[in-house]
Amino acid sequence: MADLTDVERAAREFVQREAGFAQVVTFDRTGEAVGRTTSAFLADDWTVEMVQRRVHRRNAQLERDPRVLVTWAGAPSPDSVNDSPWTFDLGLTIPRVVFLRGTARLLDADETWDVYHRHTERLRAAGHEKAPRRGRAEIDATMRGVRVTPIRIRVEGFGEGAQAFDLPTHDHSSQ
Known about the structure:
Helix content is 27%, strand content 33%. It has 4 helices and 8 strands. The protein has helices at 4-19, 57-64, 109-125, 136-142; strands spanning 22-27, 33-38, 41-42, 48-53, 67-74, 96-106, 143-156, 164-167. Strands 1, 2, 3, 4, 5, 6, 7 and 8 form an 8-stranded antiparallel sheet that branches.
């Protein structure tokens, strides 16, 4: 049995350093789940920040229904084994996956600028410079930030075999 603190650290590092894009699920006006792939940045306290174009339908979806599922998935860890499959033997090891179910809050212009500017500067400093550099006026006019507060965090592929873990959510009442 893996130590929960080690699992939490490994899962957070996987999302922050390796997983890349996330799959985000929101709910449309009929209550149907709608998924799409997007950039979603995970903070150390497990909140998620996103900046998206104002024209995206997900903004209206989140205003109507703030429930959201953010998922990051990737290759199995190098030491992954699947020697005792529960149902089917697919001949594969278990991928690493982080599921974060939470409540979204649309951000105001100042908060959106802060999220955009902070992540843009960090990414550009790491050599990721292909995205256009946008000024404050353009961000205010065309972009909208979102912050997701976690309700449940479930991770797979960070323990032995198919072992899954529910991670503790932290107190976000001040946010």
